[in-house]
Amino acid sequence: MVRLGFHVSISGGVDKAVDRARAMGCDVFQIFSRNPRVWRSKPLLPEVADGFRLRFRESGLSLAVDHMPYLPNLASPKEDVYLKSIDVLAEELVRCHALSIPYLVTHLGSHLGAGLEQGSMRIAGALENAFLAADDDVMLLLENTAGTRNSMGGRFEDLAAIIDALGQKSRRVGVCLDTCHLFASGYELRDSQGLQVTLECFESTIGLERLKLVHLNDCRGGLGSHLDRHEHIGLGQIGEKGFRALLCHPLIRELPMIMETPVDDRRDDLGNLRAARKMAELC
Ligand code: ZN
Ligand code: MN
Ligand code: MN
């Protein structure tokens, strides 16, 4: 059985997200543990955290993951932003621990022109610092990006450089692959041969044992367009053939998959869930 789900709203409190995910028919789900558009977070009250853990345990859902807020830039060459970003990362790891959430997904930010090598060193330093402030039971998942100008993590080599720089501490790090970002940054996914080549590249640069989560999104932009525009499953440039290959791949289909697809007059979340489940059944 494939494990599929969505990014779910926490409006009304984090504990409400569990019921929402169940009502949507998810097996797995992702949240922002707090408002993602501001730097400061309200403290997570122990009774709210307990409520989340209890509801999750009773829900039968297989996994909850947390996503870092939007403002932090772990690669920033600007000292004030960099230090604030480390604080938020540490806070978020602590919140995951309190919620018994095993994975925190993070974007890698932008080097703002300082260069990829500088950026990698900044990120590795930020991770090391944040790890000092948090328990080691939460794994940080580095998400690949569409490779837009100055952004970090568009190529597997970028992720590998950060992981290598962490040395021993890299045991606290895994990878989340976003299929839209992958395709937009130039990795072929439109059929099983293309997927195979992409996964072999991942294996030789990073190692498939690092891959813990998939963000399952189709893409509006073409191969290598660097356009980060998500599309409904099978209706974008990756297409139905590509998603059949992904959902039927023996390694990929074992991983939890979170959709971050749009909601519009063509399809809602349920429509994407149905489409993905149907493809996964016809392997
Ligand atoms: Zn993300
Ligand atoms: Mn994503
Ligand atoms: Mn995106």
Describe it for me?
The protein has 283 residues and is α/β, with parallel strands linked by helices. The longest helix has 21 residues. α3 crosses α4 and α8 packs across α9. It has a single domain, classed as Divalent-metal-dependent TIM barrel enzymes (TIM Barrel). The model has no long low-confidence stretch (mean pLDDT 97). It is built from 9 helices and 10 strands. The strands form 2 sheets. The chain has an 8-stranded parallel beta barrel with strand order 1-2-3-4-5-6-7-10. A two-stranded antiparallel ribbon has the order 8-9. Bound molecules: zinc ion and manganese (II) ion (2 copies). The site of zinc ion (ZN) has 4 residues, from loops.
SSE layout and pairing:
Elements: E1 4-7, H1 14-23, E2 28-31, H2 46-59, E3 63-67, H3 79-99, E4 103-106, H4 116-132, E5 139-143, H5 156-166, E6 173-178, H6 179-184, H7 192-205, E7 211-215, E8 218-219, E9 230-231, H8 239-248, E10 257-259, H9 269-281
Parallel strand pairs: 1-2, 1-10, 2-3, 3-4, 4-5, 5-6, 6-7, 7-10
Antiparallel strand pairs: 8-9
The structure holds zinc ion and manganese (II) ion (MN) (2 copies).
The site of zinc ion has 4 residues, from loops.
